[in-house]
Amino acid sequence: MMTAKLEVADVRAARSLPGSISEVALLAYPAVLQTMSDTAMHVVDAAMVGRLGVVELGAVGLGGIWLWTMLVFFVGTATGVQTFTAQTFGSRDLRACGRWAWQGLYVLALPALVWTGILALTFAPLMHFLGASPHMSELATAYAHGRLYGAPAIIGSVVLASFFRGLGDTRTPLVVTVVANLLNAALAYALVFGQFGFPAWGVQGAGIATAVAEWTFFGVMLAALLRRRMRDRFRTRPVAPEWTAMRRLVRTSAPIGGQWFLDMISFALFSTVIARMGESQMAASQAMLQLLSLSFMQAYGISIASGALVGRFVGARDLEAAERSHRSALKLGLTLAAVVAVLFVAVPDALLSLFTADPTVLALGRPLLALGALFQVVDAVGIIAGGSLRGSGDTRWPFAMQASLAWVLRLPLVYVLAVYLGGGVVGAWFGELGYVAVLSAAWLLRWRAGNWRAIHI
Predict the structure, then answer these.
(1) Could you tell me if 418 and 425 are in contact, meaning their C-beta atoms sit under 8 angstroms apart?
(2) CA proximity to 327, closest of 448, 228, 424, 180
(3) Degrees (nearest 5) of the Cα angle 438, 440, 446?
(4) Distances, alpha carbon 73 to alpha carbons 88, 152, 253, 265, 390, in Å
(5) DSSP one-letter code for 421
(6) Which of 163, 290, 317, 322 is most buried per CB count within 10 Å?
(7) How far is 381 from 437, CA to CA, in rounded Å?
(8) How far apart are CA 75 and CA 38, in angstroms?
(9) What does the pLDDT read at residue 14?
């Protein structure tokens, strides 16, 4: 009896330790739901547009991937706000937290606006240059142009969401995302199919609906930032630009943006290789990618929690709690990834039929989902380890490593397996799996080496 009581006491003590699985889960579950809900916005676009045809589904995939690639440097840089906020919060300097939201907006607002204008002028020539079919290129451009109206809001929203996550508040972004997604679903249905008196704009309508939802998210998050309680506790009222703070933010955060951009452009080229194989192959890959994104966002949500806790404990100089947070996040992420893997293997047709009823696409998609079951488990390890490294402020080494592997390993491996050896779309995804496995191992080894313990931002 005494032994049993001691074991129960040990379990309760473990749960109460800073960085325990329960603490990570409590912070992670709203972030997981929020990131999955955010992804659901794009899944809704794909599912609705897929009813228009195979080419339309492939076009949304191609246009969406390249648009995200062209914006991801700004988005990645914006996530650095979480690291600075979390470490400031961990050091108990609460009234200095609010300035990081404004410095992030100041750093990114003007460049984002200028870049959005450049993309509006150059996206159609880019699609033509990439060599997809003329019809797919035209539709991909129409979708991207609709989405571009909301591009500045995307970047501003990431700054504000990262600020709240740095404070350990993952619920506010979740609630606002749900509101934005409901609006997107209703508008997308109206504008894609011409319902409720709206014009039927097809793929462009899906893009415009998402843009409206993005601006709604930004507006509500800004209102949440300026609430009286936030102003009083964290001093979130507008402040003047602080050049020293902005330089610190750019020095630590720009490598995150660069890492994401170089990785995404290589992934966009990977997707372009598939698009050149044919419209059915691209549609099958897009359906798999949308399903993978739901798993990816689970891991990313957990990485947000891991990064926030690691940043908080690094700020408090409790490095053992930071280490514990990372381990707990890995255990939680692998458990969820295993559940998704079972679904991918058990009910592939039911999952693929969410996007298309085309028999050719379904036949191509089945082996892809079997591969995806393993892929998303391996990917989860790297995503979570990467989040822990960002939370500690270790951003430059990951940038150099990922940029190198994306070009030295990913693209050559995909080309050899998909084109040279004739593996087609399945071969391309096998190449992607090889790249992700090496990258995840690199992140994990970097964390275990402990370099992050000596980094100061």
Answers:
(1) yes
(2) 448
(3) 100
(4) 24, 13, 10, 10, 15
(5) S
(6) 163
(7) 9
(8) 14
(9) 43
Q: How many residues does the chain have?
A: 457
pLDDT recorded at residue 142: 94
pLDDT tens for each residue of 180-217: 989 998 999 999 999 998 999 999 999 999 999 999 99
119 near 345, Cβ under 8 Å? no
Q: CA 104, CA 236: separation in Å to the nearest integer?
A: 13
Give the count of alpha carbons within 13 A of 185, CB side only.
14
Q: Where are the alpha helices (DSSP H) in 226-358?
A: 228-234, 243-275, 279-315, 319-346, 348-352
Give residue 304's identity as a one-letter amino acid code: I
The answer to whether residues 282 and 143 touch, using CB atoms and an 8 Å cutoff, is no
Half-sphere exposure at residue 288, Cβ-oriented, CA atoms within 13 angstroms: 31
Q: Which amino acid is at 447?
A: W
* Contact partners, residue 69, CB within 8 Å, separation at least 6: 261, 264, 265, 267, 268
Query: Do residues 415 and 274 touch, judged by C-beta distance below 8 A?
Result: no
CA-based diameter of the chain, in Å? Answer: 75
List, in sequence order, the alpha helices (H) in 51-170.
Answer: 54-90, 98-130, 134-148, 151-166
Q: How far apart are CA 175 and CA 37, in angstroms?
A: 10
Inter-residue contact 67 to 148 (CB < 8 Å): yes
Position 16 scores a pLDDT of 60
Residues of the chain with confidence (pLDDT) below 50:
1-15
User: Cα(first)–Cα(last) distance of the chain, in Å?
Assistant: 50
Average pLDDT over all residues of the chain: 88
How many CB atoms neighbour CB 393 within 10 A? 22
What was the pLDDT predicted at 64? 86
Per DSSP, the chain holds a count of helices (H) and strands (E) of 17, 0
Burial of 417 (0-12, 13-18, 19+ CB in 10 A): buried
CA-nearest of 127, 266, 291, 115 to 203 is: 127
User: DSSP 3-state assignment of 358?
Assistant: coil
Rounded Cα–Cα distance for residues 251 and 77 (Å): 10
In this prediction, residue 269 carries a pLDDT of: 79
Query: Which pLDDT score, from 0 to 100, does residue 118 have?
Result: 96
